[in-house]
Amino acid sequence: MKVEIWSDIMCPFCYIGKKNFEKAIQEISFKDQIEIEWKSFQLDPTLNSSETMTTNEYFKHKKGVSVEQAKQMTAQVAVMGKASGIDFNFENALITNTYKAHQLLHLAKKYSKSNEAKEELFKAHFIEGKNVGNFNVLTEIAQSVGISEIDIQNCLQNDEFENDIQKDIKQAKDKRISGVPFFILDGKYGISGAQPAEFFVNALTQTYKESEIYEENTGTLTCSDDESCSI
Q1: What is the pLDDT of residues 172-219, one digit of tens each?
Q2: Which three-class secondary structure string do you get for 114-179?
Q3: How far is CA 50 from CA 40, 94, 172, in A?
Q4: Domains along the chain?
Q5: Contact criterion met (CB below 8 Å) for 145 and 117
Q6: Which of 33, 119, 130, 146 could be stapled to 124 by a disulfide with Cβ–Cβ 3.0 to 4.6 Å?
């Protein structure tokens, strides 16, 4: 059973959703029959890849939110993160263009290391305060999950996987996905937001039971809205 997940590195709800989904996977008996495919989605492709700003600066300049309001918002997300096992460090998180990070994720697919690369990118951005648009940082992350230095350098220097990234983004538009994380289970059901693990368990179980009955997917898309990041 295939699960497609659209997300962006700079989305805290995507990290929470990943943790909750992984917890759900461990609670089901058919976990070995689930294939996860990470899909690219950029919340703000207009950001300069050679510049960074703090979370508070981003909310102020891009969203028109005061520093105090930004702190209140991130504090609420931090509480959610704690419940999912994440210690968000919003004070040091560096906002930048995530395009190169998505290049790394597509390269990681060739190594069957997508999930590991995704985790390390989230950790670098939200916990370690690293610039996930930086060439050296991405090279370090790639090597940490077993990707060769030569492959990651060729990938980043030659704009490799541009077509794959744009294909993911177009698919999101075609499916009217405007916020992430967004999960599509077996091509049938859509789940929006950082849902609790119990919700994912129920959704996966329902979809799995149906996949044993129906050979063709219905193309039906249902959506349960919750916490997510939107463009």
Answers
A1: 999 999 999 999 999 999 999 999 999 999 999 999 998 864 444 434
A2: HHHHHHHHHHHHHCCCCCCCCHHHHHHHHHHCCCCHHHHHHHHHCCCCHHHHHHHHHHHHHCCCCE
A3: 20, 12, 26
A4: 2-230 (3.40.30.10)
A5: yes
A6: 130
pTM of the entire structure? Answer: 0.91
Answer whether 125's CB lies under 8 Å from 93's CB: yes
- pLDDT tens digits for 8-51? 999 999 999 999 999 999 999 999 999 999 999 999 999 998 99
Taking each helix axis as running N to C, give the angle between helix 114-126 and helix 99-110, from 0 to 180 degrees, rounded to the nearest 10: 150
Cα distance between residue 201 and residue 205, in whole Å: 6
Contacts with 111 (C-beta within 8 Å, 6 or more apart), sequence order:
145, 146, 147
Structure-token match 């985790």, residue found: 119
Q: State how far the alpha carbon of 57 is from the alpha carbons of 49, 69, 95, 101, in Å.
A: 16, 12, 9, 21
Distance CA 21, CA 115 (A): 12
What does the block give as tokens for 67?
């520093």
